[in-house]
């Protein structure tokens, strides 16, 4: 679907926010779903790039929060308002929302992993699963620049706790250092997105404290729609040692305990 | 009058010459949200084996310049689940269903071919011969003319109804020798090319980027190699040819037809633009009108050298 | 301390492992305006034959996705003019001069090798074996192990001084078998890969885009295939390997070294950015420093599988 | 050499004019020389594209007049002021200027072929080989839009005669229809650039009227510097039926009578 760029704003040297008009996607999007974006119509890079849908509006705008990771995202950052990008979506299975919240929820973000957690918080609040103050975002990153969308969570009334590896913003340390004491005092359902190493550590903590945990995984993707089998992750199987599931359509959100890390 | 697009591949009547290539279009259902499957000439289903197969561990894919490497490892649901759960969906559409099959030894191929021969909804079989033959020390069926002949003869003798397409591997010294071997041993049609073997290394970790170490290269990067092979084979055999490898647009597809392919298949391009096949079809129609060619069959092998 | 970059290819001492590939760097002089040739590890000169050769009619090149096809047809000035007019320029620089040679029959190679063996300014010979052997019905020397052995033995027996590098063609089923044949018959080093055979068609005119119909595919498109072949060959032979095919930057070069190449050669990239080799060298240095590797030789074949 | 785009102006739907800052090139450029321009740093397209140097100034700006022919020129047309392009040049052997003009000169342009003829006219005038009114430009094209740089030639004081195949501008017909009667009345040296078919016809006329003719040829190029042997054209040889010469370094300008068409 050809979409017009409305804005493409640099947040800090490594992060950008892209807003495009994509009515069909905005109409169907669910928290945790993603899109496959083609940064240009040439062959370099050849494949589309996956991005979580960060925000969307009834008017049809959708927003993507992205970091410069390589060639594709660098080209993406050069697009100006008015440019056209081809976007496929919404794709994948997002977060499963419990109907009522029995306990406060914890959202755990590793830097850019915060992207799909904002719509999750919004949805939890607007569907009255929880009140804003029953949701806490734990946001971690290497440095201050990696802590994103804090303002947006604040606007929702969600509590935000921050940590950075270099201590330049919030507590010094890893996001699991924030999570562990919270789970110890009151085990709460966890929704996490971030680098695989972080997700694995979060999953391990949740297993330890026996609290449900949903993780949004990343994988290299070619098609994004379940056709190529390229994006699989190893998960628990009923009648076998394991099975492969496709991150693009059976995920990207998985129950952490089902993932074989 | 709109140009005539029907082509006949060894008895498989295609309403147009544009197919979806095996392994790049899932079981059809994955793409039905994105395009009207009725418009396709046919769908070649993901490589099927007798038993379900889990494939390789991830990472399974990596992008390369104008291409990608894949080492899916032929993951598939197996014959039984395919017939029960996947085929019924496909048969709802007015498009030819061709089943790509593979095995680790001749007997595997023979068994699955025999089973499929009686399935009315299927239009043809495509033999994936890029798999290593475990009985012959892992030499791929498709790189040795003798192994290939043995396989094709064995499968062919089981079929009473289905045309047999042999899909050639490009990882050979002499594609023509392989094509002739397939023709002699009873193939009804050929499709080429499958992927070229490649490899990519992460220099930071000094590890291969694919868990399988090597993978199959596909995409526009391989198009010139594929066109060359189709042209060479078209000079040497009488069998109808399905040309594929790096087709991204109608011009790429036309190169194959002009080189001698009667039909084409779209692979990697599906991942990038699910509607590629439809766009190719439109481009093909427009080209035929512009060039005042009434029937696409007239174009087949029309290269002026 | 800056990392150690000297490598030794069968006695050819290179001050760094980055060469300019045959046919893509002319006789050196064409690029001397654009970069300091002293910085190169070596220059492999355009394929030389005994007599001058005019090559193919144009068009000789066509761009393809992330690659190009060439059918230059080995145009060159011939041995005499080379020695008189081209070599003196090259010897002004502090860089190893390697001569890529070719012929249409074994005797052609033998004669030119013998002549060059006595030329003091030359550091090594590279045998281009992608040429069709006219005595053997046009089968390329490089696709048949027996033909290759015959050729390599014949040339090797003439050389008293010069190391013999055999440059392998990738258009084969089993690159390892070819590499072993070269090793057994006396090659001192291997370089791989030469171009893959491809073809492009102008769909408007329905003619081949190259006058020669087919041509050799080079450029980033073929990089994954080349890395795979270098890796496979490095497992199987002891000879030092020069890796090439689609190198555009230092990361591409590093993949070859990690896969098992002791040196690399830059081809098509010279056309796009004449300074590519220097940039690669800088990138290589930086990588070695970052990875705390003191000697580039430690990196050779260090892939963790 | 990395060069900054100063302007990139659309002249009409198919033609553009690009001005970049490239001091080293401007300092050395000769009429009929060209540059190899890399439209972007990715692999699509892979190769540089050759363009005649249309104008240059002491300040270091150089100008390229180009037509949208395919992918590369389309991408080129999308560059904005401030963008950076990599340019190699000046390249090739330009027009050979006689020291004095014994007769008026004819410049013959087929559409975009006019590009290298403007600096030739300028040079002839500034070097006082000829006075402006001794130079005539014959400019042909399919249609009005293909007639370019007429203003610039007019500003020099050069006489301009125009023809188009559809008669939309100037005389209806081919540029050779303008050339033939002129040569018939007074054979003059000819300098021509345009499509190969046109150049061949011009060369044939000049042979017929025994007047010298220089043609600037086109060829697919990979390196542009003489290294790849990709761009050859067949020319007369002394001791053989023919030889191949490289358009990029032995040309692009050749004596028409030496070319084997
Ligand atoms: C479901 C999903 C949602 C995502 N959502 C976002 C998002 O909201 N914002 C965001 O900035 N990024 C997101 N990503 C990651 C994003 O897709 C990659 O950063 C992007 O594809 C990199 O492209 P590139 O061309 O810039 O980098 P490349 O040049 O392709 O690669 C640069 C580096 O990034 C790594 N990389 C490439 N692709 C991926 C990938 N798919 N997953 C993980 N690492 C990768 C490479 O291994 C390499 O080390 C998401 C990924 C997935 C799978
Ligand atoms: C010495 C020289 C000087 C030139 N000067 C100019 C100039 O001043 N202005 C200008 O607009 N163009 C000029 N050209 C032509 C210009 O280089 C091509 O139009 C351009 O390379 C096309 O690139 P593309 O990617 O847009 O088209 P492509 O997609 O590469 O090709 C589109 C069409 O153009 C043809 N084409 C591609 N390259 C060339 C080529 N090198 N010569 C002829 N046809 C080609 C192709 O065959 C195809 O039909 C010159 C060419 C040469 C060799
Ligand atoms: C992810 C992927 C999976 C594939 N799986 C199969 C397969 O199961 N059987 C088969 O014969 N070919 C398979 N192929 C090869 C394609 O059908 C096709 O031959 C090849 O990709 C070249 O075409 P392309 O460049 O258009 O993709 C696969 C290719 C890709 C990219
Ligand atoms: C225009 C051109 C001419 C070439 N000429 C020769 C040659 O004379 N001898 C040879 O062995 N290889 C020749 N090659 C092959 C290159 O040396 C190299 O093996 C190949 O291009 C792959 O490397 P690349 O992808 O970096 O270009 C030529 C390649 C090109 C593009
Ligand atoms: S990306 Fe293709 S199946 Fe998931
Ligand atoms: S373009 Fe390479 S020699 Fe002319």
Task: Explain how this protein is built.
The complex is a heterotetramer, with 2 copies of chain A (261 residues) and 2 copies of chain B (305 residues). By secondary structure, chain A is an alpha/beta fold. Chain A has helices at 23-28, 71-77, 117-126, 150-156, 175-185, 196-208, and strands at 2-12, 15-21, 34-38, 49-52, 55-56, 61-67, 84-91, 105-110, 135-141, 159-164, 171-172, 190-193, 213-216, 232-235, 243-246, 253-255. Chain A has 6 helices and 16 strands. In chain A, the strands form 3 sheets. A 7-stranded antiparallel beta sheet of chain A has the order 4-3-7-1-2-6-5. In chain A, strands 11-10-9-8-12-13-16 form a 7-stranded mixed beta sheet, with helices on both faces. Helices cover 30% and strands 22% of the residues of chain B. In chain B, α4 links the parallel β11 and β12. The chains are: A alpha/beta (261), B alpha/beta (305). Chains in contact: A-B, A-D, B-C, C-D. At the C-D interface, β5, β6 and α7 of C face β14 of D. The complex binds flavin-adenine dinucleotide (2 copies), flavin mononucleotide (2 copies) and FE2/S2 (inorganic) cluster (2 copies). Residues 34, 45, 49-52, 64-67, 69-73, 112, 115, 218-221, 252 of chain A line the site of one flavin-adenine dinucleotide.
Q: Brief description of this entry?
A:
By secondary structure, chain A is an alpha/beta fold. Chain A has helices at residues 23-28, 71-77, 117-126, 150-156, 175-185, 196-208; strands spanning 2-12, 15-21, 34-38, 49-52, 55-56, 61-67, 84-91, 105-110, 135-141, 159-164, 171-172, 190-193, 213-216, 232-235, 243-246, 253-255.
């Amino acid at each position: 679907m050809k979409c017009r760029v409305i804005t493409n704003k640099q947040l800090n040297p490594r992060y950008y926010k892209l807003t495009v008009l994509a009515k069909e996607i905005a109409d169907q999007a669910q928290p945790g779903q993603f899109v496959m974006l083609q940064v240009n119509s040439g062959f370099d890079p050849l494949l589309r790039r996956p991005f979580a849908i960060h925000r969307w509006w009834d008017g049809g705008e959708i927003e993507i929060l992205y970091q410069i990771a390589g060639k594709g995202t660098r080209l993406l950052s050069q697009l100006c308002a008015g440019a056209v990008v081809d976007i496929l979506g919404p794709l994948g299975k997002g977060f499963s929302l419990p109907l009522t919240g029995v306990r406060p929820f914890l959202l755990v973000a590793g830097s850019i992993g915060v992207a799909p957690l904002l719509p999750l918080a919004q949805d939890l609040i607007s569907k009255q699963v929880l009140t804003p103050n029953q949701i806490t975002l734990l946001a971690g990153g290497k440095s201050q620049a990696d802590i994103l969308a804090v303002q947006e969570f604040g606007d929702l009334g969600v509590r935000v706790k921050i940590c950075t590896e270099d201590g330049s913003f919030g507590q010094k340390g890893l996001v699991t250092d924030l999570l562990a004491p919270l789970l110890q005092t009151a085990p709460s359902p966890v929704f996490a997105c971030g680098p695989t190493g972080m997700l694995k550590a979060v999953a391990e903590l949740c297993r330890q404290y026996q609290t449900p945990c949903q993780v949004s995984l990343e994988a290299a993707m070619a098609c994004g729609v379940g056709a190529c089998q390229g994006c699989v992750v190893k998960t628990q199987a009923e009648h076998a040692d394991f099975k492969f599931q496709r991150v693009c359509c059976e995920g990207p959100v998985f129950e952490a305990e089902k993932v074989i890390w | 009058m709109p140009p005539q697009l029907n082509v006949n591949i060894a008895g498989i009547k295609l309403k147009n010459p544009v197919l979806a290539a095996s392994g790049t279009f899932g079981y059809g259902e994955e793409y039905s949200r994105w395009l009207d499957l009725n418009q396709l000439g046919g769908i070649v289903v993901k490589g099927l084996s007798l038993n379900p197969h889990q494939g390789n561990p991830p990472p399974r894919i990596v992008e390369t310049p104008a291409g990608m490497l894949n080492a899916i490892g032929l993951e598939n649901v197996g014959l039984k689940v395919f017939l029960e759960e996947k085929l019924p969906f496909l048969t709802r559409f007015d498009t030819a269903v061709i089943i790509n099959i593979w095995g680790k030894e001749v007997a595997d191929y023979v068994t699955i071919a025999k089973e499929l021969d009686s399935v009315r909804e299927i239009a043809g079989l495509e033999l994936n011969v890029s798999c290593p033959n475990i009985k012959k020390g892992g030499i791929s069926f498709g790189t040795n003319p003798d192994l290939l002949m043995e396989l094709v003869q064995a499968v062919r003798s089981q079929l009473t109804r289905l045309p047999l397409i042999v899909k050639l591997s490009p990882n050979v010294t002499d594609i023509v020798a392989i094509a002739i071997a397939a023709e002699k041993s009873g193939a009804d049609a050929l499709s080429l090319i499958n992927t070229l073997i490649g490899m990519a290394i992460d220099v930071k970790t000094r590890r291969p980027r694919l868990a399988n170490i090597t993978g199959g290269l596909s995409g526009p990067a391989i198009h010139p190699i594929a066109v060359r092979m189709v042209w060479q084979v078209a000079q040497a055999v009488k069998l109808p040819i399905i040309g594929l490898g790096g087709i991204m647009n109608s011009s790429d597809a036309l190169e194959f037809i002009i080189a001698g392919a009667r039909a084409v298949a779209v692979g990697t391009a599906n991942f990038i633009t699910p509607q590629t096949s439809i766009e190719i079809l439109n481009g093909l129609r427009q080209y035929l009108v512009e060039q005042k060619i009434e029937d696409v069959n007239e174009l087949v092998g029309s290269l002026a050298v």
